[in-house]
Amino acid sequence: MDQHQIWVERDHRRTLLSERPQYQLDDLARWTGLRMGCFAFPNQAGKAHFYSANPLISLFVGGHARADVQWRLRSRSLAFRCGDMTCFPGDMEMRRSMWRADGARTLAVEIDRARLSSFVGADEGLADKTLTGQAHFTDDDLARLMGAMWQEIQTGCQNGRLYAESLSLGLASHVFRRFGAGPQAAKASLNATQLSRVEQCLRARLAEPIGLSHLAEAAGLSVSHFARSYRNTTGTSPYRRLL
User: Fold this and answer.
1) Which of 24, 40, 75, 76 would suit a FRET pair with 50, their CA atoms being 20 to 30 Å apart?
2) 138 to 135, 166, 238: CA distances (angstroms)
3) pTM to 2 decimals?
4) Domain segments of the chain: what residues?
């Protein structure tokens, strides 16, 4: 089950993001999107070195906490409550000197670039972009996406692979738009021919498992380009169109 959980390095030892996971492994095994978990944290902790090769997005969903950290060579005193978020850019060490909390719980998503490439397509280059990260911020849209992902996991992933891919791709695209390096891409859309081919593909595969890759292939686009273009053109996601 290791491949379904979020692992990091703490004090140069491989460990779960928190020693108090709030999930069932069977729930994670059914989820086909980006790795995700809910974690509780101790009320008090001392010094620690923290490292993750992949970007991590965390959302406070319970309690509150204060932490003194060294973030990109700067000392920061941070206060967290419900709705507050952190974007850890990956391939960076963070040093913590103090942690005080009361009932702290977070949702966390790992943007594993290898996993992301399996459903966004390497040609788009989304998984190759770098992130600047941010130690403390709020983002209602991102919080709603994470909430929807966790609800889907908790209810047994009943909406299938396409829904998991759509949510995960939406989250990754949002994170890279906000924190990614480089200019923002122009707004993409589908032309009439592409949209017609996608509709035909949707109708033809109603009784079969369908992923974003099938629809993107029908449109002749990479998966991330297709998902963005479809939403810009129709105002909804491919999954909502299926409903």
Assistant:
1) 24
2) 10, 22, 27
3) 0.76
4) 2-114+127-160, 192-242
